[in-house]
Specification:
The complex is a heterodimer of chains A (311) and B (524).
Chain A (H helix, E strand, L loop, with lengths): L1 H28 L4 H6 L5 H10 L6 H13 L13 H36 L4 H15 L2 H15 L11 H31 L2 H8 L4 H38 L5 H10 L3 H29 L12
Chain B lengths: L1 H36 L3 E6 L14 H7 L7 E3 L5 E3 L2 E6 L5 E6 L13 H12 L14 E8 L2 E6 L6 H5 L9 H4 L17 E7 L3 E6 L12 E6 L3 H10 L4 E2 L7 H5 L4 E16 L9 H10 L2 H8 L4 E3 L21 H10 L7 E7 L6 H14 L3 E7 L1 H7 L11 E7 L5 H9 L17 H12 L3 H18 L2 E14 L2 E2 L2 E3 L3 E3 L4 E2 L1
The chains are: A mainly alpha (311), B alpha+beta (524).
């Protein structure tokens, strides 16, 4: 087990290096002069040159990358060219907010998604099943933007029971986390349902039934435990997606998290912030994947990690 | 039976879970309405966050809007463009306008208790122009050679040569005066987050990405503001900003999309406010490239575009058709246009210029930089098609667009491009010199269309050093007439601003400089 964890950890290193090169490369492939963008439209040519030197944008790309890596190792992500503040400070302020939003969204998604999935599976082809799967389909397909605006219009404008934007109180958290959680809830409902149906068809369930065990015990003890394995995987991945996917939600609800920081930074050509944020999100995603794999092992004793394949 | 009970249990679980979620929402909803009843805070929602509120790091209109409430400058520019005393009570210059003397307001203290005096102002201005500090707008005071505190309340600026717009430049929102304590021990690269100024509001907190909050300055030297707390919220999404206004979370918002105006006007609780801006939107030709070297062609296209239709149908009537290369609020403006919309005349002119069948060209335009910019470009395209000019539209992302249109003359690859310019000093020098003087050709400046007219250059140079407004105005008027005749651009429109305010709020200033000021605001 420890060996497996160590190996998985070692495997993350090339992934992280790859991500850093891609992030660094892509943002520099975009046409346009960052120094000019930073300096503004009314800037004098002298000032643009000054900016170019100040942010080392006059250096060759490989030197810029080298600086980036060396500083990154020391926990220094540079300064935002927009605000002039340390990128670590910027991210440090925003990250807890995104974390909070994603966590609440995941909790909502899990409660709604898993319970809807179980009920659908046990009452297969009932009206509830069909209705909830239809809702789930809409939930997966509905654009976050649209969903956010509809929720704002209903709860903030029409009913005026919830604030539409900003942060501060628990009320502020409800609409964004609902918006963010909806797609995950829908996905989780569908996966729980199919996984549950799959398990319920297996021999050991038939055996359990023939022993005369109560249906409740069969569903929750025997079936659910096994059915949850794919759900846990999805849950873990969803958390990573929610952290990164908060971009749209945060923009519509003016939620000052990492997602909005990233969008703003991209629009402003704020290289250091874009690099830092994407690196952070990528690292998190890799880490969450790792944790999910390990939880897997605990959930399903059949999974052994001695072999190289991991199955 | 067993199966039934399981179903019931599961059903119960779902119902309970749902009830729990809804109940917790409703419980959480309670205090939201209470909070809305409190009326000691004015909330303004703007689309973008200031980059900084340190005068030497400020570059955007949002920064100016927020900063003005906290930090003041020597001279204030009123909505009509007139200059009134702020931290300077009076000023005068020597005979040849190279030495300017300012009387600094007495009895003013900064928010930290430090007194305002000439020394404090000199420290601030020296930092603003210092090459080590590298302020983006240091060029505003580019003519200043020496800054000196003559005595406690007298400041003297010595200029290298006379520079007429110096007073308007000093009124720029970025040349703010902060407490000398704040600047003490600050290295040239260092900056600060929360400025300590002399303004009507004291800045309390900057919640990054979310809001800036301020409280009223009880010791303000002028008439104190009535509303105890002022909050600027940053809501980038237009529709979310409107929702915030409709729910009362915001008392005023900036940047309402024209398409939403009608709906907001129907809301009895909301007033929509239209204000002019100092931003001119134009399409510049590449004036050194065929066929745009011919003034007939340049004029022809001006006649081919129906500017009024653009303002009316795309901007719902908000904004003005340009009647000069600078907006009419700017000193030196004289109304010489607009070019009458007349497709027949356009065709005749093209015919006379040797293009009876028109020609093909590429029209570059930004997307999303100015309100509805690509829609405007499309409508120009179809109007040009009417007179036989086949324009291909090309757009680029903003930063690469700027770079593309900044190439030196021999490398410029464009026929025409669309751009905007805000004459934020309300002085023709800022609008005409930078964009149309021959010395400002790419890459030396912002004359991206390579317009050149010797007489215009002479006039712009002369008006820079002539300090008597009565003498300057005719120079600019002549320059404006010549530029209009030469038609280096398709003159389009001066953009309007659309803000919206809840109807129980009064006294908000909607400034043409795209600032929204709340120091005189009150609740009705």
């Amino acid at each position: 087990m420890y060996q497996y964890i160590a190996r998985r950890l070692a495997l993350t290193i090339p992934v992280v290096i790859g991500v850093s090169i891609i992030v660094f490369g892509i943002i520099r492939l975009i046409p346009g002069d960052p120094a000019r963008a930073i300096a503004g439209v009314n800037a004098t040519p002298q000032f643009i040159e000054q900016v170019r030197v100040r942010y080392a944008l006059d250096q060759p790309v490989y030197i810029q990358y080298g600086n980036f890596v060396v500083n990154f190792m020391q926990g220094d992500l540079g300064n935002s060219v927009f605000s002039g503040r340390a990128v670590t400070t910027e991210i440090g302020e925003r990250f807890p907010r995104t974390m909070l939003l994603a966590t609440i969204a995941l909790v909502i998604a899990t409660i709604i998604g898993v319970s809807a999935g179980i009920v659908s599976a046990t009452r297969r082809n009932s009206i509830f099943d069909n209705a909830s799967m239809l809702v789930a389909l809409v939930g997966v397909a509905a654009p976050v933007f649209w969903m956010a605006l509809m929720l704002q219009l209903l709860f903030a404008v029409q009913l005026s029971v919830l604030p539409a934007t900003g942060i501060g109180t628990i009320q502020h958290l409800i609409l964004p986390s609902l918006t963010l959680g909806t797609a995950s809830a829908a996905l989780m409902a569908r996966i729980t349902r199919s996984s549950m149906l799959d398990v319920l068809r297996q021999d050991f369930i038939t055996t359990a039934r023939s022993k005369g065990l109560p249906e409740r015990v069969i569903v929750y003890k025997h079936a659910l435990k096994n059915a949850l394995i794919p759900v846990v995987t999805v849950l873990g991945l969803q958390f990573g997606i929610l952290l990164g996917g908060a971009v749209l939600t945060e923009t519509v609800f003016a939620w000052p998290g990492v997602g909005r920081l990233l969008v703003d930074a991209i629009l402003r050509r704020d290289y250091p912030v874009v690099q830092g944020t994407v690196m952070l999100l990528a690292l998190l995603f890799v880490l969450i994947n790792l944790v999910v794999d390990i939880i897997y092992a605990f959930l399903d004793p059949r999974i052994h990690y001695q072999s190289g394949s991991g199955e | 039976m067993l199966k039934m009970s399981t179903r019931t249990n599961l059903g119960r679980f779902v119902v309970l879970a749902t009830v729990a979620v809804i109940a917790s929402m409703l419980i959480a909803c309670g205090p939201a309405e209470e909070a809305a009843v409190e009326r000691d805070t004015l909330t303004i929602a703007i689309g973008a966050e200031p980059e900084s509120l340190d005068p030497v790091r400020m570059t955007s209109a949002p920064a100016a809007t927020v900063g003005e409430h906290v930090v003041e400058r020597l001279i204030y520019m009123e909505e009509d463009g007139s200059l009134t005393p702020m931290l300077a009570t009076s000023w005068e210059s020597n005979e040849d306008s190279t030495v300017w003397t300012f009387d600094i307001r007495e009895g003013v203290t900064f928010h930290d208790g430090a007194p305002l005096n000439a020394e404090a102002v000199a420290t601030n201005l020296s930092r603003f122009v210092s090459p080590d500090v590298g302020a983006a707008y240091a060029f505003l005071l580019g003519s200043v050679q020496e800054i000196e505190a003559v005595d406690e309340y007298t400041l003297q600026l010595t200029l290298a040569q006379p520079f007429a717009p110096i007073l308007s430049h000093l009124s720029h929102s970025f040349i703010g005066i902060v407490s000398p304590n704040q600047l003490e021990g600050l290295s040239p690269e260092q900056t600060f987050e929360i400025p300590v100024g002399t303004g009507p509001y004291v800045m309390d907190d900057w919640s990054r990405g979310d809001s800036i909050s301020m409280s009223v300055n009880d010791d303000y030297w002028g008439s104190a503001s009535q509303i105890p707390n002022l909050v600027f919220n940053f809501i980038p999404e237009e529709s979310a900003r409107i929702v915030a206004l409709e729910t009362g979370e915001a008392d005023a918002i900036m940047g309402v999309p024209p398409a939403d105006v009608e709906r907001l006007q129907e809301d009895a609780d909301i007033d929509v406010v239209f204000q002019t801006s100092v931003r001119t939107i134009y399409i510049s030709y590449n004036n050194i490239q065929e066929p745009f070297t011919d003034p007939l062609v340049r004029r022809a296209l001006n006649h081919a575009v129906d500017k009024q239709a653009i303002v009316d149908s795309i901007f719902e009537g908000v904004g003005f058709v340009a009647d000069a290369p600078i907006p009419d609020a700017v000193f030196g403006h004289t109304s010489v246009g607009p070019y009458e919309y007349d497709p027949d005349l356009a065709r005749e002119l093209l015919d006379a210029a040797g293009y009876p069948d028109g020609f093909s060209m590429t029209l570059h335009h930004p997307t999303g930089r100015y309100p509805l910019d690509s829609t405007v470009a499309q409508s120009v395209q179809s109007m040009l098609a009417d007179v036989g000019v086949d324009a291909t539209l090309e757009t680029r992302e903003w930063t690469s667009y700027l770079q593309f249109t900044s190439q030196p003359p021999d490398q410029a690859e464009y026929d025409a491009f669309m751009l905007g310019w805000g004459t934020v000093t309300l002085d023709a020098d800022y609008g005409l010199y930078a964009l149309l003087h021959t010395r400002q050709w790419n890459p030396n400046g912002n004359n991206r269309g390579f317009y050149s007219n010797e007489r215009v250059d002479q006039l712009l140079d002369a008006a820079r050093v002539e300090t008597d407004p009565a003498e300057r105005a005719p120079m600019y008027n002549e320059a404006v007439e010549l530029i209009w005749e030469d038609a280096p651009w398709i003159f389009l429109y001066n953009a309007g601003q659309i803000n919206a305010v809840r109807s129980d709020v009064g006294g908000i200033i909607h400034h043409p400089l795209e600032n929204l000021s709340a120091w005189d605001a009150y609740f009705e």
